Amino acid sequence: MRMDEDKIRAEIIETGNPKNKAARIIIEAKPSLVFSILSNPKRHQDIDGSATITSNISGPDELILGSKFGMQMHYVIDYRILNTVVEYKKNELIAWRHLGRWRWRYELVDLGNGSTQVTETFDSSCAPGIAKIWLYLRKAYPWTQIAVVKTLVRLKAVAESQ
């Protein structure tokens, strides 16, 4: 990580839905480089702003639509989670979900000058009712907003250091 990482900020985006949390950041790297980090599950621990990923346990080196990948996680307890890529457009969009059905979506926009605008959205609109109740009781929404921002800051630091 860069020494000045604590000075970098991602912009919080108001989604109009309290169950969806989003932010965006400009990264001084081409979309193909940023996407290569996002689409490699072995890199997710490097950019994880939630600090819950402890290791990658399964999956390909490059995710595509339908790819499955597993992570060892820790939030209060250790657990494993299996994710599936449910949205995909190379160098532009990737999103995955797990059993709870909420999604982590990354949208990349080529700014044409070697820079990329990245928007990350945590989207729980597809989650079943019981999962939404669990997220609410866990107070996940405010925590997730912070994690989204931190992930984008870490993604920027990783991409710009390559």
TrEMBL record:
InterPro entries noted in UniProt: START-like_dom_sf (IPR023393)
Descriptive protein name: Unannotated protein
Biological source species: freshwater metagenome
